[in-house]
Amino acid sequence: MTTNQNGNFSTDVSDFLLNCFARSPSWQLSISLPLSLLFLLAMGANGILLITIRLEASLHEPMYYLLSILSLLDIVLCLTVIPKVLAIFWFDLKSIGFYACFLQMYIMNCFHAMESCTFMVMAYDRYVAICHPLRYPSIITDQFVAKAAIFILARNVISTVPIPILSSRLHYCGRNVIENCICANMSVSRLSCDDVTINRLYQFAVGWTLLGSDLILIFLSYFVIFQAVLRLKAEGAMAKALSTCGSHFILILFFSTILLVFVLTHVVKKKVSPDVPVLLNVLHHVIPAALNPIVYGVRTQEIKQGIGRLLDRALY
Questions:
Q1: Does the keyword Transmembrane apply (predicted)?
Q2: Helical H segments across 231-300, by residue range
């Protein structure tokens, strides 16, 4: 943004237009139905999981509280992105307000970082459960979950605030068509007439500092866990230990694999259609959200039993 004579920030743009799949418009029709089903699945599965954990006393434990945080983050991310994308696909509602765009940008960056941080805390939870089982009840307590939630919130809310602020202060001199389905930081910033070097550097630094450090700590935790598991000699102990952290490890793979593919497509963007990273960016907001509660529901006996009891109450 520029400043007027009174020193206030001004811009020539009052809203933006989200131009989804500019080079492959036929994708909108073919993707809209699967995306709708994934969105409904994500909302329904996470809603059922949250209700089950809330109503079942046997699930009032730190591990399930962390899972509840993950479900809440998934729901917010889905609601922030997918309804707008579907509105573009179905009704051609491409317009998004200037400040609404930067709000969406902030929520996406902040909540993705919070999700990554939650996975890190869950990895620590599994590390303590496997490597220090006798100390687990005294380390992973309700108070620990409360402190972890405050840390997740504070770290990511504060560190991601500059991203939309830096972008909103740029001068957008008439260009308002974003070649994306969402208000991704760099997709918006490249419309500016100003130098966006600081925006790029801060996005890069925050992304690799937060997500990078989280993934390193997550995989370090699992490296130590697998070392401990291999030393178990009791019959069935290895299978039981792997079962307790298998669901979480699968979720980590979902999250990191989609993120890795998205990054790689940007690295080799000259060899792939520019619409491919756009598609991956959209899917990254809904596929993990849809799969997370299903993986835990299928693999965790306590959750399956809790859902079964809720269904029995509802039917009878």
A1: yes
A2: 237-267, 275-283, 287-299
